[in-house]
Structure formats: structure tokens, C-alpha cells
Amino acid sequence: MMNHTLKSQYKVSPGTIITGKWHSQKYTIIKELGFGANGVVYLARHNDTQVALKMSDNGMSITSEVNVLKSFAKVQGHSLGPCLLDVDDWHWNNNRISFYAMEFIQGPDFLSFLQSKGPSWTSVLFLQLLNDLEQLHQNGWVFGDLKPENLLVTGPPPKIRCIDVGGTTIQGRAIKEFTEFYDRGYWELGSRKAEPSYDLFAVAMIMINTAYPKRFLKTTGGLTQLKNAILQKPELMKFEPVILKALQGQYTRAKQMREDLLEIMVDNNANAQIKPRMNKSNPLQQKQMTQRHGNSGQSMPLSRVNYRRKKKKSGRMEFLFIIIVLGVLYAWYTFNNLP
């Protein structure tokens, strides 16, 4: 746990100049951004550029987080976490304080963005988050303390970025940091072993969180309470199969959860287009549709059948679908932000 001298006795005031011992880079403190168990994060200025500076008296913690950011940087074209800029020590009042400078990411947090821009962005952002997590997991890490506060949306175009990598853990070890609401151990639905399914449980809880912005307390706990919470919100019902599988640890890769979520999006979009046509069809057409799909009157969505028959082409279909959705949303976003 962090030595609280960083928060009290060694509190750094705005205007203080931090000079690195080894690289001699200078950083002027602007204000505090936040603090936690492993250190304090400040907004600082370096060569007319704003950066985020994390300081800690726990050198091992700093080293661990730096390794995470270096690992992120190895993934070409990947920008899940902030870019690492510098690592050094600062000697102040006969004390050595380790720090690293990183890219300062600006933007609203995940829930604030959805509240201001509308639920139409929800699925698109979750697809993006799951793609980023797949990259992270394939690189041998688990994010651990995954929650809306650690997810910022930058842009335009809107893109999810993760901040505060202090809880990121090498797969196979015990989770270092967690927040109860998003922790499967708290809900008695799994261990705190660092594995992809741990992060995917948190993704499911973030999906639930979008419908319950103030969260809710654990009462009976377990799957029963969470399932009841899903059933009470129509916006969660359409994603119920995906959420429940993630809560029960049935996904071993973020890619699997992403594919299921995309399939639901495709089906919902197709059903929205089919429904108006069906309402205008004559009784003979409706009778033919019923006979074609059985006497039960329930038909499997046409898009689902096509999706399964053309599984080999799902990559192209997925790409086109996302491009169309992003294009429409981006146009809407740009129009509403014109001066």
C-alpha cells in the first residue's frame, strides 16, 4: 500500500519543478489529477506540452506499471493505454521519489460520454473495448481494475482509452487492485486469478452499470441478483445472453464475447428493418412465412441464418457493419458539435 507521505507530508504544490536525476528532464506541476494505493498523478507541463506524471515512493510499483506501458507499446497500431514518455527519480528533501511521465489523455469517462451522446454509441464502444482487451490478453496481461472511471473517450472520432494501469497484472497471478462492483470475487462468481475471464466479467458489469449509473449494493449476491437486475432493464435484455455468459465465466477470450455481441447487433439491426415490411405484408405473405418457419409462429431471424451460413465471410461483414455505424454516428456527432 502506498506510503501516505506522498499525499500529505510530500504533497507537491502547483508550480513546483520536478527535475529527473538521470535524464534531467524538467516538469512543472500544474495540478493534482488523482491518487490511489500506489501513488499520486499530477498534470504537468514539459516543453510546452501537457503530460501526466505519476509519482510514488514504491519503486517496485512504478517499475511494474512502466513494464505494462512498454508492453502496450509493442502492439503495433494499438493505443489501449497512455504512451510512456519518461521514467526517472526525483530527489527532494533527502527522499527519493520514483516517477514516470506519460501521455495526458483528455476526454469524458465512459458513462459520462454515453449520458451526453446517447445509448446508440453503447454497442460500438463495447466492441472497441473488447477488441482492445483481446490485444492486451494476447500480450499476457489482465487489466484487473476495469471500470468506467478508468475508461476515457477521446476524439473525434470517439475512441476508448484506458488510464490507470496500476491494477494490470500478469496472467496467472492474483489481481493486484479491484473495485468491488466489478469484481467477480465480490459477487461470489469466481476467483481473483488474473485471467481473461476476470476482465470479461468486469465488462459485463460495466454493461449493467450503463443501465444503473449509480450502481447498486450487493444483497443476495450471486448470479440471481445480477440476473434480476438485467431483467428489469429493457436496454439490457437484448444483451442478456452475452452478459450472462460473461458473468458465469463462459468466455475464455474477449474475441468470443465480441463476436456474440456483434451477432446480436446485426440481428437487432436486421429485425428493425424486417418489422416494418412485415407490418405492410398481406395475410398470404404472413401465412407463407409461418409455414416456412414452422407452425409455432416463431421464426429464426433471417440475419442469424445468413450469419451462420456465411461464417467464413463474417470478417468482411463485421467490418462493413462497423464502418456504416461509425459513419452515421460520426456524422451525427459532427453535426451536433458545429459552432
How would you explain this protein's 3D organization?
There is one protein chain. With 339 residues, the protein is an alpha+beta fold. Helices cover 43% and strands 18% of the residues. The chain is built from 11 helices and 10 strands. The chain has helices at 59-73, 110-117, 122-138, 196-211, 222-231, 234-237, 240-247, 254-280, 283-293, 302-309, 314-335; strands spanning 17-19, 26-36, 39-46, 49-56, 84-92, 95-103, 141-142, 151-154, 159-162, 169-170. A 6-stranded antiparallel β-sheet has the order 1-2-3-4-6-5, with helices on one face. Strands 7-10 form a two-stranded antiparallel sheet. A hairpin with a 2-residue loop joins strand 3 (39-46) and strand 4 (49-56). Helix 4 packs across helix 7 and helix 8 (254-280) packs across helix 10 (302-309). Residues 292-305 have low confidence and may be disordered.
| CATH fold node name of the largest domain | Transferase(Phosphotransferase), domain 1
Kindly report how far apart the N and C termini lie: 47 Å
Q: Quick one: CATH class of the largest domain? A: Mainly Alpha
| Arrangement of strands in the largest sheet | 1-2-3-4-6-5
Percentage of residues in helical conformation:
40-55%
Summary keywords:
single chain; 339 residues; alpha+beta; Phosphorylase Kinase, domain 1; Transferase(Phosphotransferase), domain 1; 2 domains; six-stranded antiparallel β-sheet; two-stranded antiparallel ribbon; 11 helices; 10 strands
What is the element layout, followed by pairings?
Blueprint: E1 17-19, E2 26-36, E3 39-46, E4 49-56, H1 59-73, E5 84-92, E6 95-103, H2 110-117, H3 122-138, E7 141-142, E8 151-154, E9 159-162, E10 169-170, H4 196-211, H5 222-231, H6 234-237, H7 240-247, H8 254-280, H9 283-293, H10 302-309, H11 314-335
Antiparallel strand pairs: 1-2, 2-3, 3-4, 4-6, 5-6, 7-10, 8-9
Helix pairs in contact: 3-4, 3-8, 4-7, 8-10
